[in-house]
Amino acid sequence: MKAFQQHLKSSLDLETTYEAIRAGFVALALEKNRRATPYVAQARALKSAAGCGNVAGLSAPDACSLFIMQNLEYPPAS
To answer: Is the peptide bond prior to 75 cis by the omega test (within 30 degrees of 0)?
Structure first.
């Protein structure tokens, strides 16, 4: 008997259930959220610190983006 035959009895054994797919998707989304949280917090703090006003003729969103990109710490301090 081949090794795979100990675990696979039919083609149905290779199908992933809807519940398993959903659980995996939710777990992945929660993990991405957990990893992103420090970066989002740091970006919000920098945006607040920058004041996001008009800098060197740049519009407010461009000035904020420039300030944030130049001052982001990678990886963020926890």
So the answer is: yes
Please tell me the distance from the alpha carbon of residue 73 to that of residue 41, in angstroms, as a whole number.
12
Collapsing DSSP states into helix, strand and coil, what is residue 6? helix
Residue with tokens 């290779």: 14
User: What radius of gyration, in Å, describes the C-alpha atoms of the chain?
Assistant: 23
Name residue 55's beta-bridge partners. 58
Q: What is the pLDDT of residues 7-65, one digit of tens each?
A: 888 888 899 999 999 999 999 999 999 999 998 888 888 777 766 555 555 555 565 66
The answer to pTM > 0.70 is no
Q: Alpha-carbon distance 70 to 63, whole Å?
A: 11
